[in-house]
Design a protein that fits this description.
Largest interface: A-B, 80 and 80 residues
CATH architecture of the largest domain in chain A: 3-Layer(aba) Sandwich
Oligomer: homodimer
Number of strands of chain A: 12
Helix content of chain A: 25-40%
Distance between the termini of chain A: 44 Å
Strand content of chain A: 15-25%
Amino acid sequence: MSTIAVSRRGQAMPPSPIRKLIPYADEAKRKGIKVYHLNIGQPDIETPPQFWQAVKDYSNKVLAYGNSQGMADYLARLSRYYKRIGLDINQDDIIVTTGGSEAIIFAMTIISDPGDEIIIFEPFYTNYNGFAIQAGVNLVPITTTAETGFHIPDDSEIEKAITPKTRGIMYCNPNNPTGTVFTESEIARLKNICLKHDLYLLADEVYREYIYEGKHISLMSFTDIADRAIMLDSISKRFSACGARIGNLVTKNKDLYKAALHMGQARLCAPTLEQIGASALYELTDEYYKTTMHEYQRRRDVVYDALQKIKGVVCLKPNGAFYVMAKLPIDDAEKFAKFMLTDFNYQGKTVMVAPGPGFYASPGLGADECRIAYVLKIDDLKEAMAILKMGIDAYNSR
Amino acid sequence: MSTIAVSRRGQAMPPSPIRKLIPYADEAKRKGIKVYHLNIGQPDIETPPQFWQAVKDYSNKVLAYGNSQGMADYLARLSRYYKRIGLDINQDDIIVTTGGSEAIIFAMTIISDPGDEIIIFEPFYTNYNGFAIQAGVNLVPITTTAETGFHIPDDSEIEKAITPKTRGIMYCNPNNPTGTVFTESEIARLKNICLKHDLYLLADEVYREYIYEGKHISLMSFTDIADRAIMLDSISKRFSACGARIGNLVTKNKDLYKAALHMGQARLCAPTLEQIGASALYELTDEYYKTTMHEYQRRRDVVYDALQKIKGVVCLKPNGAFYVMAKLPIDDAEKFAKFMLTDFNYQGKTVMVAPGPGFYASPGLGADECRIAYVLKIDDLKEAMAILKMGIDAYNSR
């Protein structure tokens, strides 16, 4: 009989709300039902062949540790990529991490001590919660709404959330889960608040290339905040290489860089072979980015149009990333998502969505919202959205 | 002018004492000096071709996320491997991690809250320090000495270190940096202390196969401590695949497993392609393990014999892993290690060692000790040890 308990933070670590329904999906599949996965940002787009070729061509006999800050060749290519898109980012401003995830954990750990606070706009990427608990940081949410396209509120609203424990403000642009693209003036406002209140500003920009209307404004283009800007990045979505776990952190603050390097040294290095592959991906030309962006744009249009045809849906057209956060005419998104897997199918097919509450820190919010990831081929998406519509009807008449 | 500081823990994050001399080594290499690296556990043994073949054969077009707990096929092979070596470890006792490093961070985070303590035997693997700072855990060192072969002290000595904040005891077997193989009775003593005082017992067993005298006793072979035993493992040293960053955590405690799984879900998964390669490695037969062990044994003998011929060296014969922690006739190991890179070479060659102090948490200890990793071919090792001897003489007559 055990008398030993897991730590408080171990107990607090939340299951991924995106992944916790997987057992129901597995059960549906065992029954022979086809499940369209709109719940997770795992695109069906092929990882460019350059990745696979670079891995196959790697001829070292020993799979050795790389440098803790990243392999030299990869750092050089990353820097070239940033300069090509107009950002003055040098090799020694970059720490290569194991996925964007590790970049976020590094950043949270380096700017905050346990009990400190980071302000964030909800709904937000649900795994920020797990990283914050791991880092002992309290996420302080500022709510944004479907009705206003999830744009950020007035300065006064943001400044109200600042306390002596606040260490930074974090945002994701374009945003996961809402698809919102933040404007230059929105980011400038955040920047000015951070300068005024001595806060770090963290920008997750992993969906940078997926902008369908407007323009992507990188945090790193504001030079007057260079000492407190932290950019988080990853190849996962850019190159449909989620399983590679290659991300990176960018900072011009040398103390911050040093602390990140030391964290990197403790865990030795990011995966070597996957960095070799990633390196080749940054040699892709504009054509790749354009083609991929247009494909997602077409998918966005399919999903958005289908949502508009469902009575009771609230959702402004998202301008970026590959997600929609939509208010659906349902009473409980958790129950609905489960219902779709356990109690519904149309001709042996169903749809998995990510329930809204997991994307909010404030209790009770998101109960009638779902995140839809448009990561499937157009034909699949069309069918999935038709099934979703039928599922909503069935759920409401059960 | 920046007014913003890095967090206290960010500032406290230590540079790797093994890696911090790299700039001096790079400078020596730029001058054309050959540097024998005895400072880092990066073997020159080839990663088995099965790894490379599996990676080349992988035919998926999308490099997708794997399961957060590890890919199903890899979990199955890991479980088979453990059963083959007599350990009753099932797939659902295992969480695949990004290197042994992540397994340690997960374990520390899940058993402790910030300010809690974990007891450890020094000298210890230096990166435990960085992980503990990241997790907000205080490592409480119990000193072991070269004169006693770095074996653990009496129970009373260990129990004195236990406070209300102690959450566990951690050891590495066979040990990095000392090469000590702990006996069954030593581990049983630790186990009984943990049962008596309600503590977790954490065993880093990544060098399990490298035992030259005696027998490896796994923590997981003690069934009465199943609720509080945590084993940390990795393919890095076992298969000379350090750059793969594939490790795993083993626990029979379901609450602990759940917390580790949730941490795993936040960061999504360990690298996919490297798991594919790792999976093939666990199909290697006993012949591979025997051959590799014998190679390291011969290297151990070369290094140990050479050390015995240096006057003033104190070091019992290490029985496992691929490290020796030796007291050398020098006043300051940090200065000596730097001297070897900046002020000494023999016929254009020199040696890099890891200074002792980085492996101790108690200030002042290890000043006359160095860790030597016997990770090079016999001929290289012989030459490196001869150069080390000459370097010590030169250092002492400078």
